[in-house]
């Protein structure tokens, strides 16, 4: 690419930048970003490979097809080198970041170069236009995150300043690194534009999560944690980001506060119902007895710290073995209190609030252990956390009043991630199951009362999920596109077969005519059906069939014979052109067209008629007697009425919802609704890895639901669902 395009300021600024040591938090960001971009770039290259293969498959000539296959081969051979070059260049940005002055220059480059665009070759111009559009779109879409990140990176790097800000993750830097990397590819401009398009689609468009992660790491490191105030002190340059951040800050705390108030109100409501239950049964809290020594707060937390993480931990080496473990938390606490010596000699007892907390944790885990939405192996693992969560709740009662509590977030994350895990999956080889197992193991081994452990584990677990979801989303996208293409092709073939069968069944056509239509022209009709949305040729291909059959009919009137003379030459040209377009056998085509001309000429000369078929009623007409049809219709009406209410439930399924299918042999598997292809009434389901596992029509799903072989899984936050269930249960008891 021509250097005047403005994209190659990369190398100069990289060489001129300072080589001061990289801050530790920036090193962490660099590792995350380089790995994340590497994963995204793999998806882009896979999409490029698919695009080139599709173009080669639909090429109009051998030369064009060879060109695409050569491009595919060139990219496959040099792909790894391009990926390494790109990741190395991105890594270098963090070591010696280009100053944002280069970025500003780049911003004005399109204008300053507008008068010089004629100096660029057509290929360079096309590439530059594509790059400018890609960069501008990214800057607009991620404006707030980029401005915040630039301010934080500028403060993190000792060599940067307000006058010379830096941002290693600016879109123009990443695009420059990629265009520099693909210089090694010996491909033409069309293939280069396909590369840039897929890079934009898979990498640049997904920068948001990496930008957010970089901002989060810098905020954790204490670098401008509150951007709103930083914006005020940085003058006009940071004001846009300040406004954006202020809006985010105002939205997030407000929503968090609102959620907190709702959770707190729910907790108080639960306590009131527990109190009513005690009064109705005449059971007063033991703390009201003056002969007892009430233990609560820090004293109770210290006592609970002596409880083993799990009282029966020695009974099972593998946490995932066996059934979910139910722990009587009230009994565990009472045993601890029975061995506690008080300073005044009175018998220790719990206060009312702590008793309610222990009861509530017990009820929560009763719900969790009965929750069918949790896959059984994950349910077993979460059951091991009853005592650690009890310790958390006693020490920090915000577990119930704040949905953002670290322990609560972690439990919700584990449950949400494990919803798609099936018992048929292999535990030993499954990364997700291994990660959940490790989280539970670390809590059991390391939790000493410090809730920050849950925050650390949740952060690590969410990062793991992001990496896994990126991979599965790419696979799922390819699966979805493949299924759409397959189903559309199937529908096209069915439409062609049905139409030809209907038209050809009326007449006994000559064998040569039948051969042309069923083995040759049917391919033209198939492609026309697939491309009809863009090319609108389907009706034209159908008219060719009608015209051919009409030309074989006898025509005695002069007007009809004149029309025949006008139609036939155009018909022959259209047939030959269409058959050549689908690469019909060239050797057979000439012979076939010669036979067709002979048949048409003979029909015109002799005025012979094509015979109408008189083979009896069609299969549809002879399929059943009126009485049988009536019985079948009645049976169908009963079936339709039976599943109508279930179809309504099926229509409530949304893309991304998880379900469980149970087979006749008792086995079951979980999958996610990935696509609803309306034109074929087809629901496509995939597993956690994004691979297709089953497809069903709407009616088939309704029948599965009616027979109890399909279960729709709830995907709401685990603790929220558990609290709602507890409230419902208590209301029923106090009603």
Automatic annotation (TrEMBL):
Compositionally biased region (Polar residues): 244-257, 625-635
One protein family per Pfam: DUF1631
Superkingdom per UniProt: Bacteria
InterPro entries to which the protein is assigned, alphabetical: DUF1631 (IPR012434)
Protein's recorded name: DUF1631 domain-containing protein
Coiled coil: none
Disordered: annotated span: 1-23, 231-264, 610-635
């Amino acid at each position: 690419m021509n250097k005047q395009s403005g994209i190659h300021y990369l190398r100069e600024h990289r060489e001129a930048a300072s080589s001061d040591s990289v801050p530790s938090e920036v090193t962490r960001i660099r590792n995350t970003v380089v790995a994340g971009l590497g994963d995204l770039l793999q998806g882009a290259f896979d999409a490029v490979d698919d695009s080139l293969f599709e173009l080669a498959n639909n090429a109009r000539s051998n030369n064009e097809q060879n060109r695409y296959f050569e491009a595919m081969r060139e990219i496959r051979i040099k792909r790894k080198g391009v990926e390494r070059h790109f990741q190395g260049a991105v890594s270098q940005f963090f070591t010696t970041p280009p100053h944002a002055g280069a970025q500003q220059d780049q911003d004005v480059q399109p204008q300053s170069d507008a008068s010089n665009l004629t100096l660029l070759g057509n290929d360079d111009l096309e590439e530059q236009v594509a790059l400018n559009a890609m960069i501008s779109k990214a800057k607009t879409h991620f404006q707030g995150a980029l401005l915040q990140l630039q301010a934080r990176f500028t403060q993190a790097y000792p060599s940067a300043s307000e006058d010379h800000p830096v941002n290693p993750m600016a879109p123009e830097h990443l695009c420059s690194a990629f265009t520099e990397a693909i210089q090694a590819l010996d491909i033409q401009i069309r293939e280069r534009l396909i590369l840039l398009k897929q890079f934009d689609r898979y990498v640049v468009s997904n920068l948001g999560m990496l930008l957010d992660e970089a901002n989060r790491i810098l905020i954790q490191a204490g670098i401008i944690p509150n951007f709103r105030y930083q914006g005020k002190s940085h003058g006009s340059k940071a004001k846009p980001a300040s406004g954006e951040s202020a809006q985010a800050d105002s939205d997030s705390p407000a929503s968090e506060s609102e959620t907190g108030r709702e959770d707190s109100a729910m907790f108080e409501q639960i306590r009131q119902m527990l109190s009513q239950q005690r009064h109705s049964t005449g059971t007063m809290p033991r703390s009201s007895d003056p002969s007892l020594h009430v233990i609560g707060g820090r004293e109770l937390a210290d006592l609970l710290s002596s409880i083993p993480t799990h009282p029966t931990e020695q009974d099972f080496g593998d946490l995932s073995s066996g059934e979910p473990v139910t722990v009587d938390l009230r009994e565990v606490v009472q045993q601890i209190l029975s061995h506690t010596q008080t300073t005044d000699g009175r018998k220790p007892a719990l206060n009312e609030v702590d008793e309610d907390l222990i009861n509530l944790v017990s009820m929560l885990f009763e719900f969790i252990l009965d929750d069918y939405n949790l896959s059984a192996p994950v349910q077993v693992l979460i059951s091991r956390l009853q005592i650690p969560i009890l310790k958390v709740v006693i020490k920090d009662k915000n577990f119930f009043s704040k949905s953002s509590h670290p322990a609560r977030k972690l439990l919700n994350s584990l449950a949400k991630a494990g919803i798609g895990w099936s018992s048929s999956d292999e535990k030993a080889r499954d990364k997700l199951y291994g990660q959940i197992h490790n989280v539970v193991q670390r809590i059991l081994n390391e939790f000493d009362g410090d809730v920050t452990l849950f925050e650390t584990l949740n952060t690590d677990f969410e990062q793991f999920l992001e990496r896994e979801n990126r991979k599965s989303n790419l696979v799922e996208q390819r699966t979805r596109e493949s299924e759409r293409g397959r189903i559309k092709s199937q529908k096209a073939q069915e439409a062609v077969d049905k139409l030809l069968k209907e038209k050809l069944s009326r007449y006994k056509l000559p064998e040569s005519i039948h051969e042309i239509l069923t083995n040759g022209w049917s391919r033209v009709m198939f492609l026309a059906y697939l491309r009809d949305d863009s090319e609108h040729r389907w009706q034209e291909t159908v008219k060719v069939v009608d015209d051919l059959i009409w030309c074989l009919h006898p025509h005695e009137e002069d007007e009809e014979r004149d029309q025949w003379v006008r139609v036939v030459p155009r018909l022959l040209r259209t047939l030959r052109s269409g058959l050549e377009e689908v690469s019909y056998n060239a050797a057979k085509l000439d012979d076939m067209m010669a036979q067709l001309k002979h048949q048409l000429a003979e029909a015109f000369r002799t005025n012979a008629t094509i015979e109408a078929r008189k083979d009896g009623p069609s299969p549809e007409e002879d399929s059943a007697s009126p009485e049988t049809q009536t019985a079948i219709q009645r049976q169908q009406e009963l079936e339709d009425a039976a599943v109508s209410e279930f179809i309504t439930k099926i229509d409530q399924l949304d893309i991304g919802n998880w379900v469980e299918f149970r087979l006749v042999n008792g086995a079951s598997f979980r999958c996610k609704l990935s696509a609803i292809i309306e034109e074929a009434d087809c629901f496509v389901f995939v597993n956690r890895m994004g691979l297709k596992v089953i497809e069903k029509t709407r009616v088939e799903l309704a029948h599965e639901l009616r027979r109890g072989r399909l279960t729709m899984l709830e995907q709401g936050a685990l603790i929220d669902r558990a609290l709602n269930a507890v409230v419902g249960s208590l209301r029923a008891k106090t009603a």
